[in-house]
Design goal:
The protein is α+β, with helices and mostly antiparallel strands. It is built from two helices and twelve strands; from the N terminus they run αββββββββββββα. It folds into two domains: 30 residues; 119 residues, Jelly Rolls.
Length: 161
């Protein structure tokens, strides 16, 4: 019985170690993002330049009055300029991208960053040209509205430092 216990423990430890080694090996390969949620539905071309995929996580309701979702921006993809009546919070879960509030310099955002987009302030966000971007978005106080879409972000603005 004791021999079976030790054999099982050693086998489990070996499998765990192999799994960790494989995970570390995969982390350094290419620019492939580690998705937390499914890719979701392709965002409409009238609101995005390039491909942005949305997965709703928490639907709007009268209890929480909050919408939460995940967006994956392919490299070079970005939202149009837009506003949110109650603001927006972005939690960057992987990749590298940009965020800009109208009239301010473009900011680089990356995994681990939290971005607050103030209420009714024109802004955009998306991936860098070379890497995709995964973000969780949180839209609070949805009883005031969700989003107001404006025009696309031209390449000249997107590429401005």
């Amino acid at each position: 019985m004791m021999k079976t216990f030790f054999t099982t423990a050693i086998t489990s430890l070996a499998l765990l170690t192999m799994g960790c080694m494989q995970q570390n090996k995969n982390e350094g390969e290419g620019n492939e993002l580690q998705a937390i949620f499914p890719k979701g539905e392709l965002g409409p071309a009238e609101n995005f330049t390039g491909n942005a995929w949305n997965t709703p996580l928490v639907p709007n309701d009268s209890t929480y009055n909050t919408v939460i979702g995940n967006v994956y921006f392919e490299p070079g993809a970005r939202s149009n300029w837009h506003t949110h009546p109650s603001g927006q919070i972005l939690i960057i879960t992987d990749g590298v991208g940009y965020h800009q509030i109208k009239g301010q310099p473009r900011q680089t955002i990356k995994k681990g960053d939290v971005v607050k987009c103030p209420p009714n302030i024109l802004h955009w966000h998306g991936a860098s040209p070379d890497a995709g971007l995964q973000q969780i978005y949180i839209l609070p106080n949805t009883e005031k509205g969700i989003v107001r879409w404006m025009g696309p972000v031209p390449d000249e603005e997107y590429n401005q430092q």
